[in-house]
Design a protein that fits this description.
The complex is a heterodimer. By secondary structure, chain A is of the alpha/beta class. Helices cover 64% and strands 10% of the residues of chain A. Chain A has 22 helices and ten strands. Chain A has a six-stranded mixed sheet, sandwiched between helices. A four-stranded antiparallel sheet of chain A has the order 2-1-4-5, with helices on one face. In chain A, strand 4 (390-395) and strand 5 form a beta hairpin. In chain A, helix 5 (112-154) packs antiparallel against helix 6 and helix 14 (439-448) crosses helix 16 (475-488). By secondary structure, chain B is α/β, with parallel strands linked by helices. Chain B is built from 23 helices and twelve strands. Chain B has a six-stranded mixed sheet, sandwiched between helices. Chain B has a four-stranded antiparallel sheet with strand order 2-1-4-5, covered by helices on one side. Chain B has a two-stranded antiparallel ribbon with strand order 7-8. The chains are: A alpha/beta, B alpha/beta. At the A-B interface, helix 2, helix 3, helix 5, helix 7 and helix 8 of A face helix 3, helix 4, helix 6, helix 8 and helix 9 of B.
């Protein structure tokens, strides 16, 4: 099997440790088997022969054995866990590094939640198996075989009789494991449903209260709560059916052992000491069976988890440095697109078709277009999140495919519509693109992005934590921090996805004036939704179904009946109302 | 994030875990079990029966050795073996009943507690939800309640059972042989050391590991959600380095916990072995002197083995209990939070509202915060539309919240149709309100279910009519299954404008007497703008409305406008009146005008190019 070979391959670098583990396991098994034998010696020799010296010797051996046993257990388990952790550490590191090379297309296809559950749940399953599952399996088999041999040599009839219940025990264990796992899955699934209902209710509490729906919501929750309760009872039913039965079957072995063994002793086919020892060995006959049920399950889950993780690792990044890619020297920001077309891997439909355009250094180009016009794809091509399917993109004459990703992206400042901030301090967030930037520059960037004002008002200023554990920022505030983050790297090319998030009028105009200032001396490409932004741009690119519909200045485009006019019709009409205001009056307040 | 910072946060988390056992919480917890005490009693009895079977076995074994084997009495051996078999069958049955019953009660108690908690937090006022992340509230209803479950489920009954069996074993050992028993108890202090000190440190190590794992997962989650930022800034190297560090720390802390575990178990086994050896040495000498039999010695050692079990269980359960207590405390904190807004005794049904709203000298401060409203007085006549405008944080939303009685004023009175809101029942009041919030919340379910949210009994025709009235019908029909299209919490498949239209339909269908609208500014793209404007007109007609307005069209449509600034009414009047005042309103209006209708800055200043741009 390919999966298990690959898993073994991951463990291979640690073979010396694994050899030690196996040696320690042998010692562990041996020292586990000695105490019952010593007990037998006490009964059959020390007591039977009234040999006190021998008794002391045995007692000493018992303690010494325990010491060796402890040491063996320590070595075995410590190294075993260490190898498991090490393998998982390597795997996690590879996965983490690899994920960061994958393109937005991948993340659009695979949901974050899904990836998280692979990276936590699947990695966890794998770790449990590699950490102790696999070797514990070996140990179970070893114990079982060794004990059967020992018991068989002591008294094979008794061994056979004692093992009569084993097949039933195995059956029960297998059946139980097969049923309990899905039962737990169901419990978890219903917990998930309960959680979803709860989360929705809490997030939407204002709506719930506004419509006075508390009672109905309570009823909905009660239904989920009751379902969860019932799934738990089902699970408990399976446990109640199996666990006491397994205990009984194990106990039955003990009863048969005592009954038959006592007869054997009375019939003088075996010594009393042997019977007592036999009793002590019994657990090593039952424990591996009970354990195996669980371990086989664990192995199954690990083998199911591994391919899912390998799949991530085997996903080829859409964009990577070409062999011999050169560092892009500091650019002026001259962008040329030649016959650029783009098709997603899976899609048949072209997202961008034959784009030809030139953006001069320092120009601001507003990109407008309806949903699905290809605006977002257009800007991600500039950051080289995708490579053109045909045609080429040049920055200062360099084909983007021939330069290293890092050297390109470090000269681009990207501000997305949904401003993502990391849960760390504001300072670290702004300095994200340039860790260790001096405080003055951070503050300067914040001032340029109109973020300095509200940051200074915070109790801890730039040291305020953002995110779940920290302060909550409004959409507009986040956006300005994201803008400051982009400005700190002093990008030659600035790419903005104009946010339409709800910010109040004053903030909105603050952001706009901030933008006007920073766009002044760099090449800026902005996905614009507002007429004011569009009009401020040097050129407007109107995209329609992946094609360049119009490209020119506002004056040029507003004059012709085209896509541009259609998009902004409402806003353009609004201008007619201006006449209601007397010019002079307005001016005083601006 | 720097490591110091991370550590500081972890320290903070640790605080709530090391609290002493709280009997008050414990008693209160047990109160939830009381309704099911007969079941608990039955379950407990079953448990005791099982323990009894286990305790009887060594004695029977002794009889088999001393009377059966030594006396060579095969008949007795058969009979005794049958007795053991019988007892085992009994334990099987008891085990079945016990697992079922204990699970039933445990889960039932959780069901009750979860339901109570849920219904309680639903009653709590907005101030409870303000500044509490959803995740934190969730975690109390799910994780903390589950945690308490462990305590109720197995903890308490286990403790009693184990305590009983511990006492029984000590008595059995002492009655069997006093000197030998005392001799074997010599190792108890060593055992106690193992189980308290070592165990405690082991638990702490595991707790640290769990924390390390969760901070690793948090980092992962952040990498995934912020992937585009990381890639755009070319910071994957530093990010990977950070992950490496956290990952390595997780591994170290895991190995540390493993180390403790590997010291703990062998150490306690060693102590046990020492006790057994002592008993063997002294016991065998007694056997040789003829004072004891072999069967006796074997039984004694068996009991000694069983002695360690309860001790181990105790230490495990105790630490479990401590953390369950911490959970209980958090849950009780929620349960003890009193709703700030509730029905007064004798609150009346307000009846059908006409829609007159009156604020009389209203002041308001959020809990423990500075006052946000200072003596607000105004009135709205039934059927009027009142627009609230003003800068963020000025108090607009607070005024809206007071009308719907999400809060009570700290001073002054809010009246609807002349009734002080504090005298009327919440249900009668709110059922006549329609509220559309800026952040439109869509519940998972079909579009129709979402529209029907405020009036569950509305027919399909009514739903459709409402959707048509707010111009939502067309886009709904364009979705895959029309009104039956499933939508999600954050409504990913719907644009924000579409979500808002659904919220409008929802409000319209509920046909409220008073409508409160927190209008979103820029949510709406140009394409849906017109639809929304028309929808609003439909929505506002025929009812009293209070609109926190941003969009010019809404502001202009309002019968009256209040400009709220820093908790006071700065200006009020009609659109025309306020423009003439040349105050705050004028300034806000102008800015909005620029943004929305694009009056270029320079053209306003020059007053020259105005005509040109109008023409263009």
């Amino acid at each position: 099997m390919k999966t298990s070979r690959r898993l073994l391959g991951m463990m291979l670098p640690y073979w010396p440790q694994l050899v030690v583990v196996l040696l320690a396991m042998a010692v562990n098994t041996a020292t586990e088997m000695i105490p019952p034998h010593l007990l037998r010696l006490i009964v059959d020799r020390a007591i039977a022969h009234r040999d006190l010296q021998f008794l002391y010797l045995v007692a000493f051996l018992r303690l010494a054995n325990q010491g060796v046993h402890a040491a063996a257990i320590y070595v075995q388990w410590y190294l075993q866990e260490w190898v498991g952790q090490k393998v998982m550490y390597d795997l996690r590191r590879k996965l983490h590094a690899h994920l960061q090379t994958l393109s937005p297309t991948y993340f659009a296809r695979v949901k974050t939640g899904q990836l998280m559950s692979r990276l936590t749940g699947d990695v966890d399953n794998l770790q449990q198996f590699l950490g102790f599952g696999a070797l514990l399996m070996a140990q179970c088999v070893l114990f079982f075989v060794v004990v059967v041999v020992i018991l068989g040599r002591m008294n094979w009839r008794l061994t056979l009789v004692t093992m009569v219940t084993s097949p039933f025990l195995i059956m029960t264990v297998v059946r139980f494991r097969r049923r309990i796992h899905p039962a737990w899955e169901r419990v978890r699934e219903y917990m998930g449903r309960l959680t979803t209902t709860l989360q929705e209710n809490i997030s939407g509490v204002r709506v719930v209260k506004a419509f006075a729906r508390e009672e109905l919501e309570g009823g909905k929750f009660k239904g989920r709560n009751r379902d969860f309760f019932h799934r738990n009872l089902e699970r408990a039913g399976i446990e109640a059916g199996a666990q006491p039965l397994m205990d009984f079957l194990a106990g039955l072995s003990a009863v048969v052992l005592i009954w038959f063994g006592a007869r054997e002793v009375v019939l003088e086919r075996m010594s009393l000491g042997a019977l007592v020892a036999f009793q002590r060995y019994l657990w090593a006959l039952i424990w591996p069976i009970q354990m195996m049920g669980w371990l086989v399950n664990l192995a199954g889950r690990a083998l199911a988890a591994a391919p899912r993780l390998f799949e991530i690792m085997d996903t080829r990044p859409e964009v990577s440095d070409a062999p011999g890619a050169v560092e892009l020297p500091p650019v002026r920001g001259h962008i040329v697109m030649e016959d650029v077309s783009f098709i997603f891997d899976d899609g048949t439909e072209e997202v961008l078709k034959d784009i030809n355009l030139e953006i001069l250094p320092g120009e601001t180009v507003a990109v407008v277009g309806g949903t699905g016009s290809g605006k977002s794809t257009f800007i991600s091509m500039l950051c080289r999140f995708h490579d053109p399917t045909s045609g080429r993109i040049l920055v200062d004459g360099y084909d983007l495919k021939t330069v290293t990703l890092d050297s390109l992206r470090r000269q681009i400042g990207l501000v997305l519509q949904e401003s993502f901030l990391f849960s760390t301090t504001l300072r670290d967030n702004i300095a994200f693109g340039r860790p260790g930037a001096p405080m003055e520059e951070i503050e300067k960037a914040a001032r340029m992005a109109q973020a300095a004002g509200f940051i200074q008002e915070l109790a801890r200023g730039y040291d305020s934590l953002v995110g779940e554990r920290g302060i909550g920022l409004s959409g507009g505030q986040k956006q300005r921090v994201a803008l400051a983050r982009a400005l700190l790297v002093d990008p030659r090319i600035l790419i903005l996805d104009e946010a339409t998030a709800s910010v109040d009028t004053e903030t909105e105009s603050l952001i706009q004036s901030a933008l006007a200032e920073v766009m002044a001396d760099r090449t800026t490409v902005i996905i614009a939704k507002r007429l004011s932004t569009v009009k401020a741009a040097s050129k407007i690119l109107v995209l329609d179904q992946g094609r360049v519909a119009q490209f020119g200045t506002h004056e040029e485009l507003a004059g012709v009946d085209g896509v541009y006019r259609r998009i902004f019709s409402v806003q353009l009409e609004g201008q007619a109302e201006i006449e209601g205001l007397d010019d002079g009056e307005v001016a005083e307040y601006v | 994030m720097s490591d110091d910072l991370e550590l500081a946060i972890e320290e903070e988390d640790k605080e709530d875990e090391e609290k002493p056992f709280n009997y008050g919480h414990f008693r209160r917890m047990m109160g939830y079990v009381t309704p099911y005490r007969s079941r608990v009693l039955l379950g407990g009895l079953m448990m005791v029966a099982i323990t009894g079977v286990h305790l009887a076995e060594p004695l029977l074994m002794r009889a088999i050795i001393d009377l059966g084997i030594v006396e060579r009495d095969l008949g007795l051996i058969n009979r005794l073996a049958l007795v053991v078999l019988g007892l085992r069958l009994l334990a099987w049955a008891a085990g079945y009943v016990q697992i079922k019953i204990m699970n039933w009660t445990g889960q039932r108690v959780l069901f009750d507690l979860r339901q109570q908690l849920f219904e309680h937090i639903q009653k709590l006022s907005f101030s409870f939800y303000d500044g509490r992340p959803v995740g934190k509230i969730m975690s109390r209803v799910t994780n903390d309640v589950n945690h308490i479950g462990e305590l109720v489920n197995s903890g308490v009954v286990q403790v009693i059972n184990q305590a009983l069996s511990l006492v029984a074993i000590v008595i059995i050992l002492l009655t069997m042989h006093v000197q030998l028993a005392i001799l074997s108890f010599c190792v108890v202090p060593g055992l106690i050391y193992c189980f308290t000190r070592l165990r405690g440190r082991m638990e702490t190590a595991w707790t640290n590991t769990r924390k390390a794992i969760s901070s690793m997962n948090a980092h992962l989650n952040e990498t995934l959600t912020g992937i585009q930022v990381i890639q755009a800034f070319g910071r994957h190297d530093t990010n990977s380095a950070r992950f490496d560090k956290i990952s390595l720390r997780t591994m170290r802390s895991y190995m540390r916990a493993v180390k403790f575990e590997l010291v703990f178990w062998p150490a306690s086994e060693m102590v046990g072995a020492l006790g057994t050896c002592l008993v063997y040495v002294f016991g065998v000498r007694a056997v040789l002197r003829g004072e004891l039999t072999i069967g006796f010695l074997m039984a004694f050692v068996s009991y000694l083995h069983r002695f360690w079990g309860p001790v181990s269980t105790f230490s495990r359960i105790y630490s479990q209990m401590l953390s369950a207590m911490a959970s209980a405390e958090r849950v009780f904190e929620f349960l003890d939070t009193k709703p700030e807004v509730y029905d007064r005794p004798g609150a009346i049904d307000i009846g059908t509202i006409a829609g007159d709203i009156e604020f009389e000298d209203v002041c308001f401060a959020y809990k423990g915060d500075a006052q946000v409203l200072h003596g607000i007085s105004f009135s709205v006549k039934a059927g009027e539309t009142l627009a609230l405008v003003g800068p963020t944080g000025g108090g607009k939303s607070t005024i809206a919240n007071l009308v719907a009685r999400f809060y009570d004023p700290t001073r002054g009175v809010v009246r609807i149709d002349g009734h002080d809101l504090r005298d009327v029942s919440l249900a009668s009041l709110r059922s006549q309100f329609g509220i559309v919030l800026q952040d439109t919340f869509i519940f998972s379910g079909t579009i129709a279910e979402n529209i029907r949210y405020g009036r569950t009994d509305a027919t399909d025709e009514e739903v459709e009519a409402a959707a048509k009235a707010v111009r939502a019908h067309d886009f709904i029909m364009r979705t895959e299954h029309g009104y039956d299209t499933e939508v999600q919490e954050r409504g990913a498949s719907l644009s924000s404008g579409q979500r808002q239209l659904i919220a409008f339909a929802r409000a319209l269908l509920a046909d409220p007497r008073i409508l409160i609208l927190d209008e979103a500014t820029a949510h709406i793209d140009s394409e849906t703008e017109r639809a929304v404007q028309e929808a609003l007109r439909t929505l506002l007609a025929g009812r009293t409305a209070m609109v926190i307005a941003h969009r010019l069209s809404t502001i202009e449509q309002a019968d009256r406008i209040l400009v709220i600034d820093r908790g006071t009414i700065a200006e009020q009047g009609t659109h025309r009146e306020l423009l003439m005042l040349r105050g705050t309103y004028r300034r806000l209006y102008t800015i909005q005008y620029q943004l929305e209708r694009d009056l270029p800055v320079d053209s306003i200043i020059n007053g020259q190019r105005l005509k040109e741009s109008t023409a263009g």
